[in-house]
């Protein structure tokens, strides 16, 4: 499919753009009218509400058009194939044994072009994993066992641009690649996690199809009407499979912002289902289907962030190693602690986190001021700061522009070293998080036998 640029669009579209722009620009230069008292003020039609609304509608309309041209609505995101060497590393077996199992399972051979080497889809890797686990139960499928509770990992911060969503999507894919059953839930109306997993909110997420559909107060927040309205949708109805085998998604959209206005009304009307329990209750509906849930929280402390914190078993706070970002993290932790204390005092349970970690992101190890900040954090919080860091890399940025992760990108000779260095960093972070999960489950590693 051709990827049309703005300049490539038909002249009619360009003329339409100019008309739309002229339509929003004219009111900005309209003369002011005298009001009582001799003071001048802009016409009501020139206020910020009208101006921002029209600009926002124009921008959304044009972005949707561009998205339809570059990423057609019927187009689905596809995951690259994996080399035999990668498959062997993921499964912990030799390449020869991988090929032997393929013959046993009669998996048809697919060759990578133009090299001609055999490649594998993630579905085929999953078949191999199931085949291995049938011979050694519990060794190759690290699913939860009896007595092991679901792990809900929440990636949160108070400041945008810290790499929170980037780390969240990489963690979700990392766990899926290792055989865990993973559910990614996007709590951020900006929907970065949703977009990275191949879903464009403007095109693919309709009303009540985001997380909002499963947690909203559709009975109008009136306890006397509880059960009379439609009520929230079952969680399973808003979960969708992704192109990434083993990883499901509950998407976000701008509709999710309505939770911030519904929740205070529900509090005022003393709704019997408090806002802070809505996400945990939704997860409970599908907990038996998953081992790991990854939450991507918005960079603010609103109602949905608090509900996400209440549902969490593990918390990962991302921070860029600059003092202004560290100060923002201090505010986040202080305010979050105060708010959660209020919730606990209002009848909420004490949230028992299995672990909480600080993750240094966008890190440049050769930058001395950054290293000083990292050393400062480690001196204060010691093992609560992950040993691995998410390095600042052009490979991560390039993948983001293509709406890909490092696990999806295809290496070539021009970027192989940069890619490998970034992937090693990301794997290091995710391996530490996996170790925390296994520690909670009292396992040495995910291949430990019963």
UniProtKB/TrEMBL annotation:
Pfam families per the UniProt record, alphabetical: AAA_31
Biased amino acid composition, Basic and acidic residues: 8-21
Domain of life: Bacteria
Composition bias, Polar residues: 38-48
InterPro entries in alphabetical order: AAA_dom, DNA_Partitioning_ATPase, P-loop_NTPase, Plasmid_partition_RepA
Sequence segments annotated as region (Disordered): 1-49
The AAA domain, residue ranges: 151-335
Transmembrane segments: none
PANTHER family, per the entry: P-LOOP CONTAINING NUCLEOSIDE TRIPHOSPHATE HYDROLASE, PARA FAMILY PROTEIN CT_582
NCBIfam families listed in its UniProt record: partition_RepA
UniProt-recorded name of the protein: Plasmid partitioning protein RepA
Taxonomic lineage: Bacteria, Pseudomonadati, Pseudomonadota, Alphaproteobacteria, Hyphomicrobiales
